[in-house]
Fold these 2 entries.
Entry 1:
Amino acid sequence: MRVNVFIILVAILSLTTVNGQKKTYDLGLYLGGVNYYGEIGKKKFISPNRATLGVIGKMNFNEKLSLRGSVTFFTLYDDDRDSDQPYRANGRNNSLYYSFDNTSIEASVGVEYVPFSFLKNTRNPIDFYIHGGLGAVYNEELYYPLSAGNEDVVAEKYGSRTRMVIPFGAGLKTFVGSNFMLGIELSPRYTMSDNLDGSHPDAEELEANQLTNFADNDWYTFVGLTLTYRFGKGTNGYCDCGL
């Protein structure tokens, strides 16, 4: 149901681009960190351990509502030896320590909304925003070789796959000068997969390689900075376009 709502909302906003009204546009870079949350390694929802780099663009309908899209490059990684959970950190009762890394690229589109701003009456107010949408991540299919214990086991690749993700989050942004905008953002991703980490391969021949005690689908979380350049009508400060 949530997916259908987002699709309808994005479609409605996209149709407004043909109405001839002038808008502003932001284009720039995203730089930050990412961490995975699942069956391997740490169980911390926000604990970046690998860098991310991406491009982000926005179509601003007014000072509160925008359509946004991004493409982000990153690697997901974790290791049981780094875990803060005793069961994993102590070798899962069998001196087994699992680890993986998964090179990934994500594309997403969504809606961004500013419910309120700080320092509203100044030249460069600070906007608090929330966002949500749909995306897809392309990365490797992994599995762990069978082991009798007493060793470190590194995930191996057996294919590649595109998976749907649901991005959402919140952040702060403000103008730096007349046209550049600086932002900081926290953006979790819920994925439609339980095998970003190699713990639950769904290939029939690898059913025996699935780990026990697996949880729900995997997550990953971005924390980072955005630096964008605004162009179009109303580039000096807020967009003065109409929806």
Entry 2:
Amino acid sequence: MVSVVTGGPTGATDNDASVAGPDCLICQKHAGVGPLVSPHLWEDDLVRVSHIPPVDEPEAFVGHLVIETQRHVGYLDELSDDEAAAVGRAARTAARAIRAELGAESVFSAVIGIGVPHFHQHVWPKHPGTPDRYDWHRVDEWPDAPRAIGDELDTICDRLRPYFT
């Protein structure tokens, strides 16, 4: 599970960590600092797509991507129409990439809206062979699930990246 900072939105309208608040882990990540810095796949003016880093475990669950707004905005209902459309396109692209490159049985997506007060949408696979007892929100708990770190994780991201261009 990813460590999070709790609280509501700061009301900032810029993705600069100093404007949005030093406690926003996603703004810190966008500035290249903090515990969430991870392999970056793609970005435009509205959204950024990256792989979840290994935070509380030694290796990352392979294929767990996160789509974040560039602008510091707390919740789904606060997205502009353009941001909402960009998030949707990025989530669809992420799902296609995960299925094609990682052979996922299923691809799940969720916006939880608690924890880090900066909009982000998770997209992650159910890897082949995952036992049915691991529900959609627990597939990363399967001990035999693919995990990676460092160069291996970078190589996986290199395989996914072309889908976004």
